[in-house]
Structure formats: structure tokens, C-alpha cells
Write a structure and sequence with these properties.
This protein is α+β, with helices and mostly antiparallel strands. It contains five helices and six strands; from the N terminus they run E-E-H-H-H-E-E-H-E-H-E.
Length: 156
Amino acid sequence: MADTPFVPADFDPPTELVTEHFRLEPLGPRHNEADLNAWMSSVEHIRSTPGYPDGNWPPPEGYSPERNLKDLERHAADFSARRGFTFTVLDPAGGDVIGCVYLYPAEQASAEKGFDVSVQSWVRASHAPLDEPLADALMEWIATDWPWEKPDRYGR
């Protein structure tokens, strides 16, 4: 599985999903401050979200802006290299970061069950009612615009 490309070579990954409640765009260094503020304001809420069962992220003590920037740079590099696709979730009205979406190759245990993509998402505690609509919109988006057939939704 490690030698199999995550997406076909001729696939052009979508870079936007827009609904009346949120807008997705690729996560990058320009989102550092807003991303850090978003997840640090909602650590317990994120940890209780399906898909974050190990309790390791987000760390209760948070990150420094420099440490968070390194993560955002890693996610942007993964997107460019087509190893994974991370999107920031923005409020369509003001453009503030309200969450994040991660599309990465299924972990080994999931791949053995036939899953071909790991789908994780979170929203700020202040936007908790959007959690399920975001997760559902992701499934529709994957079904129509992405090459995967069996997403691991982590029990959603």
C-alpha cells in the first residue's frame, strides 16, 4: 500500500468547498494565528469529536505559534506532494477559522478493512452545531469530487 499513490497522477485535487455555513480552502502558513486560536479555544471539544480517539491531539498545553507554523508547513507540503490534503474551515461571513479537515491515506488497520482514505474534521466549540453538517458535506464532496471509494469516517 505504501507504494500506491494516494491519488492518481492525473487527478487534479479540489481546492475549495463552499456551502452556506462554511468554506474550505487548503490550510497553509497564512492561517497560523487563526488556526492556533481556533483549536486552542476548543481542546476538549475537539478531543471529544469522533476521529480523535487516542487523546494525543490537541495537546491541552497548546503550541507556540512557531510550533503550529511547522505543522501548517508540513500539511501544505503534504498537499503539494499529494500525500495528504488538509483544509481550513472558514466562516463564510467573516473568513475566521472555525475548523479543519484532514484527508490522509487510511492507517494500516483501516486499510486492512478496505478503507482508502482517513477523513477527520473538527470545528470550534463555538461552532459545534456545524460538526455533523461538515462531516456529511465531506462525504458528499469525496463521493463526487475525489477518487476514493471507501472513506474511514471514524464511526460517524
